[in-house]
Amino acid sequence: MKQTKIIFLLFTIIAVKIQGQEKEISYPYTWTTETNPIVKHIYACDPSAKVFKDGTIWVFASHDADTATGYWSMKDYHTFSTKDLKTWTDHGVALSVDDISWATSHLWAPDACERNGKYYMYVPANHKIGVFVSDKPEGPYKDALGKPLVPIDNAIDPMVFIDDDNQAYLYFSRKGEDCFVVKLKENMTEIDGVIHELTNWSIRSTIDGDYNFVEGPFVHKYKNTYYMTYPAKLYKQGAKGNKEGDEVICYATSNSPMGPFEYKGIVANESGVHTIHQSVIKLKNDYYFFYHNGALAEKNGHSEYNKFRRSMCVNKLIHNKDGSLKLVEQKEAIFD
Ligand code: FUB
C-alpha cells in the first residue's frame, strides 16, 4: 500500500512538471543572450530595472506560474543581475508570499532601491503595498513593518525614485484609476507627509484617443526633466486604429517629481498580453526600456492563457533632440 502511494506521488510530480513545462534549475543560474525574451527558463514579468552603485543592473520581476490561468497565482519574486545586458544571473526567489504575514496572493509588480548599504523592495500583495529589506540586492527580503506601508486600499505597482538631492519618492497606482506620489523618510520605511494624487486631466484622458492612466508609474530623470512612463488603456473603441482595451505605455513629463505631469504621447505599443509593464535605465550613454510580452508562452505552445504567462524583454529607448521619446521598437534582437 505504502509503495503504491509513493509511486502515485512520483507520477503526480512528473506529470505536473511535464504539463507545466517546469525545468529543474539550481540558483544562482547564469546564461547569456542577445535576444528577447531575456529569461527563457521561467515566466518573469513586470521587470523593474535599476542600476546600483557598483554599476550592476538589477531587475526585480514578478513571476507568472507555468500553469497560470489568472494573475492571482503570482506568489514570489525573482531578482536578476547583469553588467552588460548580455550575461544574466537569476538569483532565484528573493521574496515569497510565505514571508508576508498580511497577504496570501497577487504578488504584483515590484520595485526596489539601494540606500545606505541596504536594499529595499516595495511590493504590492493582495492590493496593498509593503516594504521589505535585505543586506543584499538578491535578498532574501524581510518584511520591515509586519504590515502594509501605504494606508490606501487597492494600491498596486509601487515605484521608488531617488532624486539627485537624495530625497526618495514613492509612486503607485490605485488599480485602474489613479496615480499617487508620496515622499519617503530617510529610513525608507515610513512615508513623509501627505499623499498627492497625480492623475490630472492630462494623463486621465489623452490626445491620442482616450488612453487613460491605469497602473505601473515609473519615473526617470533626463536633462532635469522628470519622465513618467505608465501603462494606459484605450477606452474609446477604434481610436487611431487601436482596439478598445489595448494597453500601451504613455509618458508624461514634469519639472518636479511631485508633478503635475503633462501628457506627451505613446512610447510603446501594446505587446500582445493584455497588460504591459515598463521600466527605464541608463547604461553608459544609452537608455533601455524593459517590458514584457507573450513570446515565451507562444514558443512553449500555450494558447489562451499566454496573457498570464509573460516574459521580460528589453530594447533601446531614444530621447529625441526636442525631449520627446521615440516609439520603442519591440524586437527580438536586443542590440542592433
Ligand atoms: O502582473 C500583475 C499586474 O499586471 C501588474 O501589477 C500590472 O502592472 C500588470 O502588469
UniProtKB/TrEMBL annotation:
- Please give the CDD domains that the UniProt record associates with this protein: GH43_AXH_like
Q: Which UniProt keywords apply?
A: Carbohydrate metabolism, Glycosidase, Hydrolase, Polysaccharide degradation, Xylan degradation
The record's SUPFAM superfamilies line, in alphabetical order, gives: Arabinanase/levansucrase/invertase
Keyword Metal-binding listed: no
Q: Name one Pfam family in it.
A: Glyco_hydro_43
Q: Which family does it belong to?
A: Belongs to the glycosyl hydrolase 43 family.
Q: Tell me the PANTHER family matching this sequence.
A: ENDO-1,4-BETA-XYLANASE (PTHR43772), PUTATIVE (AFU_ORTHOLOGUE AFUA_2G04480)-RELATED (PTHR43772:SF2)
Could you identify this protein by its name? Family 43 glycosylhydrolase
Whose protein is this, by species? Mariniflexile ostreae
